[in-house]
Design a protein that fits this description.
6-stranded parallel beta sheet, 7-stranded mixed beta sheet, Rossmann fold, elongated, 22 helices
Amino acid sequence: MFKAVVFAGTTEGYEIARWLKDRGGNVCACVATEYGALSLEAGEGLQVKAGRLKEEEMEELFMQQDPAVVIDATHPYAVEVTRNIQDACRNTDRNYLRLLRAESQREEQAVYVENIKGAVEYLKETKGNILVTTGSKELSAFTELPDYQERVFARVLSLPSVIEECARLKIQGKHLIGMQGPFSRQLNEAMLRQYNCTYLVTKDSGTAGGFREKYEAALSCGAVPVVIGRPPKDEGLSLKECKALLAKEKELKVCREIALVGVGMGSAETFTQEGLNQCRRAELIIGARRLAEAAKAAGGCGDVYWEYQSEKIIGYLKDHPEYTRIAIALSGDVGFYSGAKKLLQGLKEAFPQSSVKTVCGISSLVYFMGKIGKSWEDVCITSSHGRACNLPGLIRENQKVFSILGTRDGVRNLARKLTDYGMEDCRIWVGERLSYPEETIFEKKAKELTAYEGDPLSVIYVENPKTKKRMETHGIADEAFLRGKAPMTKEEIRTISLAKLKLNRDSICYDVGAGTGSVAIEMALRASQGKVYAIEKKPEAAELIRENKKKFATDNLEVSEGEAPQALEPLEAPTHAFIGGSSGNLKAIVELLLRKNPQVRIVINCITLETVSEALEVLKTFPVEQEEIIQAVVSRAKTVGRYHMMMGENPIYIISCKGVEKG
């Protein structure tokens, strides 16, 4: 077990003692007074000893405790105590660490003097009441002031010995204030006003000693801070540096509280109270720059690390075990298109002994819909920020759609697509820089926004009064497609082939030898949140596919001009592939498909026996399963006078299979 003796005469000393105890250390904390003992709660792993120790007593304590380290966190003015601790460590061969207080920056509006005597000499030339906050030990120096019994108001510890000493100096009654600090700015202000003080005497006791609160209170009340500068600066470590050094000890466990905090839109007003509390108590705030700065501005006082990638966040925490309380700022709500899901899992795996929790926030959906006065229980909700999303397709099928955007031209691009696809009258509500002073919210029709460029930090809500419900089955009528001279897979064959493909909503599909694009169009409608690539070598046919894409508003369809298999090389790996025309390259095409995705599902249409033979050879050559071969013969009725004659179409072989991953 890691043992330590801490001379905890300061706030930093109390903090390092608790920090060591929480990490499984065995700590003996030494404090000079009973007041100090009250600041630390003794218990398992933390022993508290009250009372001043001589050097010999320190040496005896070190021999009894056998600590791995002795930490000197005494007050910067306790020079003699520090010297005794150093000598005792040297005599008993103990590791010594000096823990320094955070020294406040010098302020131009304060009067700085070298010592108490200098403060008294300065105050002799002034008039007005004085609040003395330097303690009782050197209070006698202020008796040299003329009328000190009327001018001086001393704030000291309420120990009997201290009160008696003040009474001996004839500083008593309302001129004597017995209290334990540090004090808030408000309480300092109240005392200065209560006693009508025009001067406040203080030592530069650092941030933890309440110097800033005293200084700001004095200025607020129109009083002059008289600051006694610190002794010559001694060498040592800050609290952060001390933790970083001790955290490397293998006997100490890594024990953290990590909170993934949804910070709302970014302004302090959209933080939840719990979110604010987590940020304010955190020693380290992590997040993308905008979010981390928002958390800091909302009252966070810890260090800040700008990062949003899960792997880098986890890596940073591994490299900096000194941080115990961490807040990771995430946009909006942690459960609404957030990076929290991946990060949460990674943190739990990386730090199994730590507490990792999520703190919900106000999502952009809730905030924005409230701002425009719209309910959202029947809204189609999505995001196109950093992810593929067929937004026009969703708007085509849904009366109400909400989406997060992520680029300056996001609104413009959507408006142009909606206009091209015949949805130019859709009403679009745009929200930018939500919750910030420059927040912008407005509503226009799609056709009015085709040249708009806005802020990437934006959301939209779209209402489409003329939605077109998607067919739940395959089989768009042949007449619905623009035909031209390109070959087309007929409705019945197309229906069977698509059924054999077994598409999902997010499938990545190839239509090889796409012709008019009828199969690709139906693929795109079925895999509405996936992607479809129509591969066609003839330019006039490729243009026809683009026209059909526009007619059916299939924004997730992309035309790739060229001959397979070469044209397939740059495309993302498919989950499904339909081969309607191979130009004699069937084997090479299937080989490439299986290389891109060994588990791809393939459907091949064959008209000629030569293609059938080639397809059968493919089934034998490559590792595939779920093989199925059917022949479809379709006849259509044709009116001849008063009669209906059945006219046969060419018989089609439909061959389907699925790749098998080796191993």
